[in-house]
Each structure stands twice: as structure tokens, then as C-alpha cells.
Amino acid sequence: MTGRRRLGMVAAGATLLAAAPISSIFESWSWLVRCIVAVGLIAGAALLARTVRFPVWAQALSMVVTLLLTLTWMFPSGHEILVPQPATFGHFADLVTQAGQDTRSYGVPVPDRDGLLFITVLGIGSVAIVVDLLTVVARRPALAGLPMLAIYSVPVAIYVDDVPILPFIIGSIGFLWLLVSDNIDRVRRFGRRFTGDGRDVDVWEPSPLAAAGRRLGVVGVATAVLLPLLMPSITGGLLSQITQSGSGIGDGTGIGGGGGKISLFAALNGNLTQGETVQVIKLTTNEQEPFYLRFGVADQLTNLGFGSRNPTGNSINRGLADPRNSTAGGEFQQYHAQIEISDSFRQTLLPIYANTIQTSDLGGGWSYDPNQQVIYSGRQTTKGKKYNFDYVRATYTESELRGAPALNRDDPLRTQYTNTPRDPYVDNLVAGLIKGKTNDYDKMRALYNYFAKTNGFTYSLSTQPAGSSSEIAAFLKNKVGYCQQYAAALAWMARVAGIPARVAFGFTKGAQQGNSWVITNRNAHAWTEIYLKGFGWIPFDATPASSVAGSTRTDWAPNVDQTFPTASSSAGTAAPGASSSAAAGNSNRLDRDPDAAGLGGNINGGATPISYTTLWTMAGVALLIALLLVPALRRLMVRRRRHAATVPKAPKVLAASGAGPPGEHDIVVTAEAAQAREDAHAAWDELLDTMIDYRIPVDPTETPRVTAHRLVGEAVLLEEPAAAATLLGTAEERARYARKPLQGAELTAALHLVRKGLARSANRRTRLTASLFPPSVLLRWRLGLAETSTRAAATASRWRESMSRFSPRRLLARSR
Amino acid sequence: MTTPTWDKPGGPMAGEEFRSATTAIMANIERVIEGKAATVRLALAVLLAEGHLLIEDVPGVGKTKLAKALARSIDCSVRRIQFTPDLLPSDVTGVSVYNQETRDFEFKPGAVFANLVVGDEINRASPKTQSALLECMEERQVTVDGTTYELQSPFMVIATQNPIEMEGTYPLPEAQRDRFTARIAMGYPDPRAELAMLDGHGAHDPLNDLRPVADAGLVRRLIATVRDVHAADAVQQYAIALVTATREAPEIRLGASPRSTLQLVRTAKAVAALEGRDYVLPDDLQTLAVPVLAHRLIPTADAQLNRRTTDAIVAEILHRLPLPHERNRSPYDTRPNTGGAQYEPRGR
After folding, report:
1. Complex-level ipTM beyond the 0.95 threshold
2. Is residue A179 within 8 Å of residue A141, measured between CB atoms?
3. pTM for the whole thing?
4. B285, closest residue in chain A (CA to CA)
5. What CA–CA distance (Å, rounded) separates A242 from A114?
6. Domain-wise residue ranges, chain B
7. B92: nearest Cα among B138, B139, B130, B52
8. Tens-digit pLDDT profile for residues B190-217
9. CB nearest to B331's CB, from A665, A736, A779
10. How far is A542 from A489, CA to CA, in rounded Å?
11. Domain annotation covers residue A457
């Protein structure tokens, strides 16, 4: 098989491997069978076309026709005999339409629907054709990665949060296979490979020329991996900074999104996992132990999980509902609250308390949704708002709530708020839990109590966000999650039990500062609300109280983890003083557990993030400057060391020196002479480096005398520097070759003179480079690096050579 | 038969004395050969390095005049041999003739028995005659009829030859060439020197006015002084590296001999002493490499076809051979540092 045909086969194989991501979309594998058949037929057609030496356009045409025929056979309309008829294309159009509908009506994984299969086969087949043409005809296999990537973009578009990684790896392997095959084919067409020692080279054996590529690759991968690690702001800080300061908690656009993936969950998750603690709200109220601030609800439960509707209602100027007018029981206490929202918190839903009856200072543009009980705006945002409101706090006793009658089955409230996707595991669990309970409140308490720590539930931020049905079930099995999972799961289970339920979003009460409460992003929270006839929406917070900063419990839903039921009304939070001491003692742990971090109430206000950012920036700039200055500093150090060597020292004669009588031409070895030699060498090294710094080439074939002479000529040194350069040359010459070195010469001064002379004759740019980025230091480093890498490469190749002795191929060749 | 033997040339001189003596000799020669200070200095250096000089140039540039001026400046025995095709070896070395009176063979010394031997047009004699010089030039002795006669010291052969004329000439064999320490070319004088020559030589030959400024004893002491010049290890390594490079150069079929290494360093010492130094510099070797090494090398056929002269090849080697000193190592030099000089042949 020639290289070209082999490459066609590889292209087909690579296309199939690249189609692996599709597996996460379909329930079964029948799509793969069809794709293999289609791609195989296309590759066969291409092979045939190339065997009979069709021109390129004919090759492409044959592949397209093959794809068309294959589609016709796979998805027949019943009218055609092997060859597509006009009716076939109508059928195809129907299939495409059907696929469009299917994508809207089915969640992943989808069953084998004809329309979807048709789209898949058509897509993969087209990709196969493009890949084949790019690889075999255009010889540009790298470009073939683009259509392959297009396949991968399908699951990426569907799984917004969590894209399966394994199919991507498989696809990448396919692409790499294609690249390698093409490269091998190129090398083969170039000619026969052999080494200097006359032996044949294995196809997979890398050529020495590839060493540079390997080096580049290693450097590239290392940089790609290390750079994000070196910059913590990229992984943690920067991204969350964008979500936080850019759009606040739950940007308005996200909330307006309607029934799909709800961004309230994402915003909550983002707030809790954010690296920094930012003050969001300052709240002043005359209530002693306020319950949670509330700004939004997720009340639609679909296959994709809880989501929220767009709130609808009238302007707040028309007044808000007062729960005292239509209640079946309970005690009501009216309070007043004032809220200041920081600039970093911007959304279109207003944080208020439940049962707010009147607002003021809010300005226009805000509306009230009586169903969701939220205040929202189409135009305004909460950024920097300061407003007052009155609210009533309702307290109910258990017996009152027990008396709430069940809603009728056809009550619209019940039909709307108990609609759930069927999940057998949840259904069975709920059925078991509410067995024997007669009223809604008892059922709810049974469900609520289920989330106790004694049942194995623990709090952790490091889980997948709640959402689709399978995730709820997974949470109920794993029993590890945080507020949004707890709230969504309880709401879900309540709905299964036939109780209208929804998820409310807001903030816990935060940390007390005098009369005020400081609420940070760490206080973001979600909880469950159920509807009891005659009482309205009653909150239940299933999240373990000890893990939520500012958690508050009510009498009708006491803390299930509390051993003393009497303390339940003010659960969890304990005294601020005690908490803060605990916080101080466990600061490490608290850092890791952001929800708990606010327990102590150690909030520095908005200053912290700014100072962190500034600090990071300053540290980064300082580091950059330091890095840039390293060569200059290195040059300075070297120069100082050499100057220290050239400073004349007090003569020191060795005791055993001066053996010969004066006048004899014996070499007199004294410490002084040796020192003079060293000094001259140091001065000479310094001179050479200075020359390199000032861009005057250094020639290893030149003698010191010639070098000094050339320096004088090339750098146009005037009298004094010229004499100094000559002196340095003479000193070095005598240090190297004469019996007695030059002694007592002012080499340091000469060096200064030469450098000054060079600086005078050099242009500004050279001068600047010489002082800031001395070429001598950079050159030395570069050469050192090159030498090290060469040595490493040599070692590696020796090692590989010794290993290849055991290569099975070679052993086989030897035995033959 | 000679009183001061070769190995005892006399005591060395102080720097000042040496300088005045050598300056006097050079000034004396330059009264005849004008504007050729470097050539004169090199000729003197070869004398002080106990070597032999081959002067090769076109006719009429003063080859013979230089040889004669050098000979006249030194008050010692001078003989001149005019090499002709019919010259016999015995004319050079001497011959045993039968003495009727003593009824015995008596040795009649040839032309080589002198301190300075001027061999004019050496390539006109047959190789047979040329070979007569082999022993005396290297070993400074003559063996005739089994009897060895030692030559005087100093002993120097100054030969001239004409490279242009090919007919009727016999190129010197390699062995003979190798015995000459240096080959120098006179070159044409510059116009000013030529004008001065016209003025000076117009009336009479200044050679006739030349008076000796040194004698054999003085020359022996000069030689002793030159022998005492210091050649550092690095310099000797450089000399070896240079010679090795000629042996490894791809364009050269036959490289320089170990004898040439010796002569190179010896001549370098003489040059250093003439410049008033008591140590040799690599610069000296670089100056001498072409005159000392080039005439001994035999280029390959390719190099000859490419009209590459050995002078150019040696100059190129000089140009690319790094100095054998680790401190001279350029940062641009990426070759492994082995301490000594290395020559890496290119293109092989």
C-alpha cells in the first residue's frame, strides 16, 4: 500500500476516533456502527478513486456520492431503490427537522432517534471527507484538526459545566496519529533513512534533527503547565474576580434566562467558592435575630434541575402583600430594616426579608412579584442602593402548621409546584420517609429531619452543583454537598411528597457589628420553601447549621443536629465572641471552608480585595523588575569580584621563594608574582567582557597584544583609554608568557578608563544595553544553557542507544 | 678542527648589549638593502636561531645582495657557491686528493667550510649536488670518505632561488626544503626605496663600502642569548597546535615536520630577542608561521588546482586556530575546553 493510500485509511481512522465525544450524547452505540460503515465506505471510495487515478475533484465527488448513497441506504424513505430519488431528499429534510425538534425535546443522553442519527452520520461523514481531502490531497493534516474539533464542540455545547474528558483524549490521539502518519510518510518519500554507522533506522526512531523539536515541545508543555501555577490569579482570583466585581451575584442577564440552566445556582456557587471575602450588604434592623435575606427563587423543576421563571408583577408603588391579612394562624411582629448595598454587588433582584410590607427610598423602576415574593427591576440594579423597608416576621407553632389542610390535587398551585421529573430512587426514598404521616407539615418535617448529620450528611463546597435529576439522586446517595444541593434536594423531595416547594436564594444574617449586620459573599445561601395552605410559603433550611455562617433556624424547623432542642431558635451561630475566638484558632481550616469563615465575623470590609490585588500587582511588578535587573546585577558582581582582584595588595613573599641569586633568569615564584598574574588575568577577563558588552567582537585566535590594538582602533579610543587598553594587553601578555608578570600597574584604573572611553564612543543604545542587559552575561548564560542541553541530549541519546540494544526488532534482525 | 664547538657558543649577553649589537648589524645591512627592515630582521633572526635561510624571489630584487650584505656585516669566513647544472657534490663538501709528496690522500675542504655559505641559484644544480648540503645543514658536519669533519659555528647557509624560471632548474627536494628554517621573499622595493637605491647605487656599489660590525664570537654570544629566551608552555602548545594543524589540514598532503616545530620556536625566540623581549609571544609565532612553515608543506592536488598556495593555507590556519590559553577563550567559542589548542579540520 502506498503512503498516500495508507494515509487515507489513517485519516478515516482518525475521524472515527475524533467522533468519540459523540458517545456522551447517545444512549446506545448504534450511531457508532453507522458512522463506521459510512466512514469506511467513504474511505473505500477514496481509495478506489486514487487507485484508478481520478483527479482530485473526482475523488472528492466520489466521496460525497458515497456519503449520499450511504445515507440513502441507512435512512430510506421507502421510495428509492439504492439510488436516491427526489422523495429521498424530502425525507432527509424531514429528518433534519425532526432532529431539530429532538434536540429541543430530549435531554442527554438521547435515544436512537432517526433524525439525530441522520445528522450524526451526515456530520461525521462530512468531517471524514474534509479530513481526507486535507490530509491526503492538500497534505495539510494539521488543518484537519479543525473539523475534528468541530465534532468535539457538540458535547461542549451541550454539557456547559462538565465536559467529558476521555472522548477528547481519544479524539486527540486520533489527530496525533494522523500527524505522525503524515510525517512518517513525508520522511519516507524523502528517501531512505540511515544512520552514520550504516544501520537502517526504525520508522519510529526519532532523528537527531528532531531533538530541537523535542526541546521546543518540552519547553512549551512545561511553560503551559507552570505558567498558570506561577500566577495564582489566573486559576482562582482572576476568574472569580470577574464574576464578582463585573456582574455581582447573579447578574441580571442570567436571571432573565428563563427555564434553562439557572444562573442563581451558579452565582451562589461562585460566591461561596470565591477566594476573597467581599462585603456585599450592610443591614440595620431592629429585629434581634433576623432570618435570611431573600432575593430570588427557583421554582421550576425540569430535567435540567431547578430553574427560575422571570418574575412578573406590578410596580412596588402599588403596595406589597401583607401576610397578616390572610393567614390561618401564627404570630406577627413588625420590624424596620435599612440596607446598604456595596458597589461590588450588582443584580436585578433586590434583597429583602420575606413578608416585606413596605419599601422606601428605592426609587422607581422596581416591581414586586407576589408569587415569588421578590422585588425585581428590568432597568435598575442593586449596585450601591440604600433603602428602607418594613417587614413582618411570622412565627408559627408546630401545631398551627400541622393544622394546615392539604391542597387539592387539581389546585393550580399544587400542579405547578409539585411537578418533578421521575427519579425512582428519590420516589422510593420519599415514600419511605413520609410513610404514616398524615399532614403536609409532618411529611415535611420527616423529609427535613432526613438531612441530619446522623444520617451521614456532611457539608462540603467541593462537589458538583445540583441540577439535573441524576445529580440529585447522586447527592442523596453521597450525602456530601452544600446549601444549594440541600435546598434543591429537600424541595425536590417535598414536591415528590406532594407539597409545593421551591428553592429560595439570599443571604444569611452575617456578622453583627453594633446595630448592623455585615453580610459578605460568604453568606450567600439557598434554602427550601414549602407552601402550606393558609400560611403561605414557609422556609425550611436543610443545610447543616454548623457549616453555614449566620445560619438561623425557626421553631417549626429546628436544627436537626442540635442536641438541645431548646436552643434551636438561635441555632448554630452561638455568641459572636466565642465564634471569633474559634475562628482565630482555626484560621487555616476556616480559609478552606469559606462558608464557615464568616462565623467569626472577621470582615475587613471592601479593603481586603483591593489590597490583595494591589499587593499582587506590586509584587509582580517588583518581581519583573528584579528579574530584569538580574543580568545587570550579575555583571556588577562579576566586575566587583575582578576589581577586588586587581586592587594591588601588600607584597607577600613566600618563605621558600627567591631561590636563585639576582641576575639569574630563573622564574622566581613568589606569592606576589602569582598574585600579579591573577590580577592581570582578572583585568583581562573584565576587559573582554566589557568589549562584548560594547559590541566589540572578541576573537579567540588573537593575542592580547593584537586584541588591545584592535580595541584601540575599532572603538576609537583616545590617548588615555588607548594607553590603558595597551597597558591591560601588556599586563595580560606578560602574565601569560613572560617570566615575570607586570607588577604594580594600576589595572583597575585602566579598566575604568577603557570603559569610559568605550562608553564615550558607543551610541546611546549600546550604552544602555551594556549597563542594563550586559551581553556578556546573557551570552554566558545562553551558552551555558546550550551546553547543558547539549550534554543532556547526548546523555539521553546514549541512554536510548543502550536501550535500543534490547529492542525486539533489532534482536529479530540479528537472529535472521 | 674548529675551536668553539657547537654546544658551547659562549655566554649570554645583557639586553642592552644585545640590542646595540643586533641594531648595528641590521643598520649595516640596511645600508645596502633599503626599505626591507622586516626582511632584514628575519634574516638576522634566522642567523641567531642557528638556522638556514632560503631567499626565493624573482631575479633582480636583491636576493644575492642581501645574502652578501649579511655575510659582509659579520667578520667571519664567508664562501659563495654559484650553483650550476654541472656543479658536483665534491665541489660543495670537499674532496680527498692524492698528495704525491706525502703519498697520501689529503682532504681539500669544499665551500661549506665557512661560517656563512651563500648558495646562489641553488635550484640550478642537480639534485645530486643539492643533496650534498643535506648533512652539513642539519648536522653541521661533513663526511667524506668515511671521515667526519665538523663545521664552524656559527654556520649558516643562505640560498637563493628563482621560482619563475622552470627550464633547466631542479626544484629542491622536500628533505632539502625542510632543512631551511625560513623561506623569505624579497618583494619589490617601494618607490621611495627604489629612488634612494638609484641615488646610492648610481655611483658605486655600497656593498663594497660595507664594513663588518660583528665577528663570529659576538654572533655566538648573540646565539646564546637567544637560546635563553623564555618560551612559556602556552607558547609551546601554540607552536605544536600550529604544526599539528598543518598536518591535519585537508588541503595539505604533507604537513610540517617536528624539526619545523623546533625551528619555529627557535626563530620566535630570536625575533623576541630582537624586539628586546626575554619571552616569546604567540604574536612572534604568528609572524613566523608563514616564512617558517609554508615552504615545507606539500599541498594536495586539489589545492594546487584551486591555486591555493601554502602561504594562504598557513595564514588561514593562523586565522582560525584559537590561542592555547583558557583565559583567551572567547564566550563565542563553544568548543569544549580541553586546556590546549585544538584544531578542527573543516570540510573533511
Report:
1. no
2. yes
3. 0.52
4. A703
5. 43
6. 1-228, 230-328+340-348
7. B130
8. 888 888 888 777 677 778 888 889 888 8
9. A779
10. 9
11. yes
